[in-house]
Protein: Bifunctional folylpolyglutamate synthase/dihydrofolate synthase
Amino acid sequence: MTATEVSEAAQEIEKLLALHPKGFDLSLDRITRLLAALGNPHERLPPVIHVAGTNGKGSVTAFCRAILEAAGLSVHVHTSPHLVNWHERYRLGVKGGKGALVSDPVLADAVRRVAEANGGEKITVFEILTAVTFLLFAEHPADVAIIEVGLGGRYDATNVIARPAVAVIMPISLDHQAYLGDRVELIAAEKAGIMKRGCPVVIGHQEEESARDVLIATAERLGCPISVYGQDFMAHEEFGRLIFQDENGLADLPLPRLPGRHQYANAAAAIRAVRAAGFDVPEAAIEKGLAGVEWPGRLQRLAGGRLSHFGPPGAEIWIDGGHNPGAGHVIAEAMATFEERNPRPLFLIIGMINTKEPIGYFKAFLDLTEQVFTVPVHGSDAGLDPLALAADAAAAGLEANATSSVAEALGQIAELTDEDPVPPRVLIGGSLYLVGDVLAENGTPPR
Structure:
């Protein structure tokens, strides 16, 4: 995708950003009106796997896509936010092979048509971009569409789907409290809003029992066929293999390509979701999907690129966009696993926006990291000042220093470890916006 191609769709979206508010205004009235003006494209979709949750949404979406594509099915995928280019939000399925990000002319045309159909009425940009999803997915045939919720569930713009093939609720923790509530059970109730009466529901691994109880109670009240992780299906590692189990028996599978033990439960939820949605995929397709799955910006190792020249020679550099305490816990667990297998001193380079809970995130890394370097987030106007973020890290018990950029932080880590016999491990994260900045600066955007 060339810079010229990117700019055509980006320019159309920038026009919308100048006219309509950023952020979220949770309601279904505006999106319903707009979709009606477009001829209700959301009613002409292939079977939909609808995915909500605080953490793991992207991973389970990636697993579902990989498994279904390995079975020869064409798969549309909607995710948000994007990391570098708007096109990442829309992947169009191709029969018998991997889908591809929407081309720039097709996206630009869809954005223009949706904006014209809106007629200048009050609406958020996310709602327009969600309508673009439905328009694209209705106009391009596919076997299945995987649609990720943007925020919450009940009043998210994607929640106009009347009869999903399956609703998937991934782990729930505190995030977006201003919109969704300040207790996990309140957030769970909002996420449960994507469940539809009589439609299958898959509940992924839930750390919080109160969230799990709310989800189960909602599914039962709506008469939904329900599958609960740890009760109806589960997965664990055994002799370097992933053992998946449900009422149909055991499946001996390769470990997921995505690193981290938390991905075992995410992969299990995807297998169950694909089956619950009515797709009878062979075990060989599941094996191929787990081995080939990709999900940029989530525990992704940077292999080369411009930024690597600033860091210590031989350093392991990882990026992850997780940004809440729950995400901090699973990322820290993954870093601890890496340490067990291949000991290296760990340094963090963290940037966050002001809607997150930094101290809870940082506490997950106690006794794991040597030092934290905080950086600004250029991709968002809500970025926290690195000095304030360093103070949060210190309040969590970590040694922290504020820096002006990821490149500067990498340079400081290089100086600190210059004489160390073992090159360090570096985690860059705390925000998907920061991860997008890093991928763009490194010259390695998602494809």
Observations:
- Residues 1-6 have pLDDT under 50 and may be disordered.
- Residues 130 and 158 are 7 Å apart (CA to CA).
- The first strand starts at residue 48 and ends at 52.
